[in-house]
Amino acid sequence: MKKIAVINGVNLNRLGKREPEIYGSQTLQDLTEMLDATAKTLGVELIHFQSNHEGEIIDKIQELSDSGVKLGIINPAAFTHQSVALRDCIAGCEIKFVEVHISNIYKREQFRHNSLTAPACEGVISGLGFDGYVAALNYLARL
User: I need a labelling partner for 138 at 20 to 30 A (CA). Which of 4, 5, 55, 125 fits?
Assistant: First the structure.
């Protein structure tokens, strides 16, 4: 069975509580359950991981790559705009990632318009809420 990693970065554990006017009222658990249900219909297995710590995310990506995972969805959150280390990790692993953002980063503050990680990813989906994750999952399941 094809395995797809779902990596969520800093503050995404606060979904449903943090700035609901931007991120909505659904929680990370709601997202996980929705993606697992979609994955079941697609015949793929998901590996979920969330951390507020950059190094833990990098360690997990390396671990997943070393274990043979080839596909992933990543929402680096604020690390998108500042982490050269995460960008280098994504570029240096053998996982094809789709970068996903719940909000449209291009409708927000100027500093959010630049993604350091996007050039290391297969594609970027921004501003579609949880549906962006589903679109990424559908794409990766077909690869």
Answer: 55
Q: Which residues touch 56 (CB under 8 Å, ≥6 apart)?
A: none
Which residue of the set 23, 48, 106, 133 is catalytic? 23
The Cα–Cα gap between 18 and 11 comes to 8
What distance lies between CA 29 and its chain's CA centroid?
Answer: 14
> Which of these is catalytic: 101, 106, 133, 139?
101
CA-wise closest residue to 93 among 110, 69, 123, 119: 69
Question: What integer pLDDT is reported at residue 13 of this predicted model?
Answer: 97
Phi, psi of 135 (to 5 degrees): -60, -45
Rounded CA-CA distance 67/3 in Å is: 11
Pairing of strands 2-8, 71-75: parallel
Residue 101 annotated as catalytic: yes
Give the pLDDT of residue 18.
Answer: 87
- Here the tokens at position 105 are 């980063």
Threshold 0.90, pTM exceeds: yes
Q: Give the dihedral sign, CA 23/25/29/32.
A: negative
Mean pLDDT across the chain, nearest whole number? 94
